[in-house]
Amino acid sequence: MAKKSWHLPRRAFLRGTGITLALPFMNAMAVGKEQQALNALPKRSAFIFFPNGVSLPKETDPQFEDWYWFPRGSGRDYEFRTSQQALNPFRDDISVISGLSHPLNRNSGDAHVNPTGFLTSKEMIKGKTTHNSISIDQAISNHHAGKTRIASMPLSSVGGVGNIARTYTLSFDKEGRGIPAWSNLKEIYEQMYGASSPAAQARLREKQSLLSDIHADAKDFRRKLGREDQTTLDEYLEAISGLEKKIENDRLWVQKGAASAPPEMNLDIEFTDVENYIRAMYDLMFLAFKADLTRVATYQIASEGGTAPTNNLSKQIGMKKDLHQLSHSAAKSAEGFKDWGLWDQFVAKQLAYFINRMKETREGDGSMLDRCLVFQGAATSRVHDNTNFPLILAGGKKMGHNAGQFVTYNEEKNNLANLFVRIANAMDVPMEKFGDSTGVSMDELFS
């Protein structure tokens, strides 16, 4: 990078009436100290959960070749099947992992309580466990305390906490208490962009663009930047504007009739278009990471069990069965595993969207994805099976992740908490043990 004519501090902001907008990394922040600036680029981690496991027909089933969730092949010679094909463009950025779970929960008595311990590895026994332990996202967040304006982003499609048997959050503090998840797009947006003045908050409530408040500052600021930095700024502001437009559409479901919403679901309007809502959540995480507003985020796409408020998400995208029925009836009909696999396909498509946003965003000497570890999985494999979690780890090439492979572990000799330790280490947390980790190095995944 050539030395710039004017200095831009790593923490640079645009300001308007009641609005503070953090800026992404730009070349002008290096000012001749390229390596120092690269070393200062933030590392991020995102933890994403989906419920009820995945489609895993037996090898004798006609649907096995297309709709079995895990890939064909092994090591670096692997191939995604039909349900995960959206991830093909990012194959070299992804590790697919099998053979890991939480050993303490294999006899939980109710697999639907397992998501509560998904990021903690705490033993969850139905009717006996009364409290949790700290989740890995919060252990990482605590280490980076004070470095960002938002310590962490706990997101879920329901919001709140739920309870030990049916959690609506993935994040738990050091006392094992659930951290209420955020689900309202407007409220998350407001927290990110610091709408502090009454006028700014009023505009947010009326769904008017907050970017109008910083337009003059942005125009003046842009003139001082080089061409590449101008492009970076324009893309960032365009991304925020696109998110605002997406949020403006979140009341569309009212026009389709409130009767279409299942009576047991306590959903806000953003659930009308499930795909757009999930993508808006990914957009929020992307923008928060890009501006270094936070370095850790969790997102629970849906919660576990047939009584969960999000159980009908599959029906809202045109499928005939709810999420619980998809998993429980798969082996009972000729097309059952395909039906379940179509939901898996939908989840993979949304993850591909998130990965693509970060991979297309240049940052320093690589992409934003190179400095972000994205962990996604479920707390069961087949129906109520607490072993062999379906897991994906994406990104993080500049954090030591040896991406681009399908790794199978021996579940009797390894467990998921060992992977959590290595993810924390990649986030510069000097952690040697987490939960029931056993000290296995996981060198296949991290160098």
Give the arrangement of secondary structure elements.
Elements: E1 13-16, E2 19-22, H1 34-40, E3 44-49, H2 64-67, E4 72-74, E5 77-79, E6 94-98, H3 136-143, E7 153-156, H4 185-193, H5 198-205, H6 215-222, H7 227-248, H8 253-256, H9 274-290, E8 296-300, H10 313-316, H11 323-328, H12 336-359, E9 362-363, E10 366-367, E11 372-377, E12 391-395, E13 405-408, H13 416-426
Parallel strand pairs: 3-8, 3-11, 6-13, 7-8
Antiparallel strand pairs: 1-2, 4-5, 6-12, 9-10, 11-12
Helix pairs in contact: 4-9, 7-9, 9-12
Task: Please describe the structure with a list of short key phrases separated by commas or semicolons.
12% strand; 447 residues; alpha/beta; globular; 13 helices; 30% helix; disordered N terminus; two-stranded antiparallel ribbon; Alkaline Phosphatase, subunit A; single chain; 2 domains; seven-stranded mixed beta sheet
Summed up, what is this model?
It contains 13 helices and 13 strands. By secondary structure, the protein is of the alpha/beta class.
Low-confidence stretches: 1-6, 249-269
How many discrete structural domains?
A: 2
Structural class: alpha/beta
Q: Strand-and-helix sequence, N→C?
A: EEHEHEEEHEHHHHHHEHHHEEEEEH
Largest sheet: 7 strands, mixed
Give the mean pLDDT.
85
Q: Can you tell me the CATH topology of the largest domain?
A: Alkaline Phosphatase, subunit A
What's the end-to-end separation, in Å? 28 Å
At the first level of CATH, what is the class of the largest domain?
A: Alpha Beta
For the largest beta sheet, what order do the strands appear in spatially? 7-8-3-11-12-6-13
- Assess the beta-strand content as a share of residues: 5-15%
